Amino acid sequence: MLRRFAIIRLVVFGMLLAVAGSPGAQETSTLGPVTNLPLPRFVSLKVDDGYVRRGPSQSHRIDWILTRKGTPLLVTAEFENWRRVQDEDGAGGWMHYALLSGHRTIVVRAQRAPVRKKPAESAAVVALVEKGVIASLGACTIDWCEIEVDKIDGWIRKSEIWGVSATEIRE
User: Fold this and answer.
1) Is the CB of residue 78 less than 8 Å from the CB of residue 34?
2) Is residue 80 part of a domain?
3) To which H or E segment does residue 50 belong?
4) CATH number at residue 69
């Protein structure tokens, strides 16, 4: 059975904007034998439709299809031109590297998460994002990450998103 992801809404002060969503992660890093980049590492889907296969070749069965460009994925293994990936739910398989981008994105896990002007609970709320919304990832502190979605940018609690490790700091 092929899995497709639904449209999720972004709520910005009562205004609904359509943003498609998609869906786990672990830590401890080694280097990939092909790219010499850390494993695991986060990437995003570069295309609108990306086949996730049972094994690392086109002859392997397609288990599901990612249908939202920008979906964050966790690369857990490499084999030639193929990367084993997992989504936020831990579902995974193999994708051709050409379908993946180094552009970092996150997906909102909380039912409705506030995006704040600064990385502090006391900061003004600039938007509320619903579960499944995908956003570009900016800087991260130990507890907060800066995100941008539909020209809205601000800070969200790291515990409310997936696509960045708990200990990751970004400038």
Assistant:
1) yes
2) yes
3) strand 50-53
4) 2.30.30.40
Tokens matching residue 127 = 């938007």
Give the domain range for residue 84: 25-105
Indicate the pTM of the whole model.
Answer: 0.82
* CA-based nearest residue to 46, from 20, 25, 24, 72: 72
Q: Provide the 8-state DSSP code for 158.
A: G
Quote the number of domains for the chain. Answer: 1
Tens digit of each residue's pLDDT, the chain (171 residues): 333 333 333 333 333 332 333 333 345 679 999 999 999 999 999 999 999 999 999 999 999 999 999 999 999 999 999 999 999 999 999 999 999 999 999 999 999 999 999 999 999 999 999 999 999 999 999 999 999 999 999 999 999 999 999 999 999
